[in-house]
Amino acid sequence: MSKKLRDIPVTLIKGDGEYEEIHLYSKHKKIYPRWVNGLFNRWRILFVAITQLFFYSMPWLQINDRQALLFNISEHTFYIYGFVFFPQDFIYLTALLLASAIGLFAWTTAGGRLWCGYACPQTVYTEIFLWIEKWVEGDRMARIKLDNAPATARKIRLKTIKHSIWIILSLWTGFTFVGYFTPIRSLWSEIAQFGLSPWETFWVFFYAFATYGNAGWMREQVCKYMCPYARFQSTMFDADTLIISYDAERGDARGSRKKGADYKAAGLGDCIDCTVCVQVCPVGIDIRDGLQYECIGCAACIDACDEIMDKMQYPRGLIRYTTENALEHKYPERDIIKKITRPRVMMYVLVLIIILGITIGSLVIRKPIKVNISRDRMTMVREVEDGWLENSYRLQIQNADEKDHSYIITTDGLSGSRTIIEGTGQIFVPATASQDIGVRVQVAPSKAGPGGHEMHFIITASDNPAIQVREKSSFLGR
Fold first, then answer.
1. Least confident of 122-136, 166-180, 268-282, 367-381
2. Element (H, E) at 102
3. Where in the chain are the domains?
4. Cα 387 to chain center, whole Å?
5. Quick one: DSSP state of residue 439?
6. Which residue numbers delimit the 4Fe-4S ferredoxin-type domain (predicted)?
7. The model's pTM
8. I need a labelling partner for 418 at 20 to 30 A (CA). Which of 200, 205, 299, 404 fits?
């Protein structure tokens, strides 16, 4: 698309002879957030520290001489803090996704976009990259001046330092992320020996590039144009949802004035129209225009406005966390906490508690053993030398424990049956491994007439009788 076509405005007829010109395509303008101090900024720093300490350190944590959190896709085994899961445990992933979705609905209905403002990976890494940018290039005006300056040696040096730090951090982030799917200690050894596999190399660089591009270049565009959360959040908001709002009743009319001046006599409100709230916003919006889908709820504008109010010796809270109903004086702001327990939120919480309760209960009673039984379909039933009838089965025993176990296989349901196991009597299965075993069951003809007869295989750990499963099968007679 040519530049001239991109700049052609479109006229919208609004009615009553009014019209408005808009541009369907506009060039992206870089946002230079200004550094701000305050309570909520300290909270953001704390959440950045907590989330990144967890992310970067967790792959190195060992439990039972194994990585505590590892999703080993190549071996179809997932280790989560001492628990071992196999693909058959997909139900737990489903429960986790359901709980996350319901939790997000409850959190958003009650607290708005606090997740976006404090813990979302896009927000966290954008914040880290902005810290690096500020440390290298300076605060807002210094960065604007540097970008508009010609390509001097100083500019090239500062840009090179900044991007080098960004790239190093991005590569370490990509390496750590892959370390959740490939044992990170082995991954580090492969890198040190230049023996990284092509796929591991691809994914390390892919996630490094994603981190570098999203946090270093795209930033607020990811939140505004790519993230679906900003688009469907309005369906979860209501008039009692916590949002960041500008108190127009107190702040308007806006205007500059000298400190200590009788601004009320001049018909002005508390807003001095300094635009600092806009300068600190990481997505570049003016919160004074009302609630906007671009707002990520980071509260940088609150810290900035409170700082200005302190300088002007005005009360804080011109921009604050509040609700639509509280802002319209339908109830005092001290009652906002009480509104969290409204029926809509409680419904979400109840569903979340049920899902979590069932999942946790299932994990508590879960046996660290799984058994799959298949019949030898080549020989349904055959007669052995002494006239007894024999069925052949294949048992796959999966040891879903962090310890080695030996198992004893018995049967019941058919009186006088004999169980013949390939190899020794006890089946040894290493920790988190599986073993295929051939089993033959023999029954006297008088005990197994034509058709199928219900029976059960009982598999018990010889060193821990509490680890036992009972699986239903059938014996074909004739």
1. 367-381
2. helix 90-111
3. 29-366, 369-477
4. 62
5. E
6. 262-290
7. 0.84
8. 404
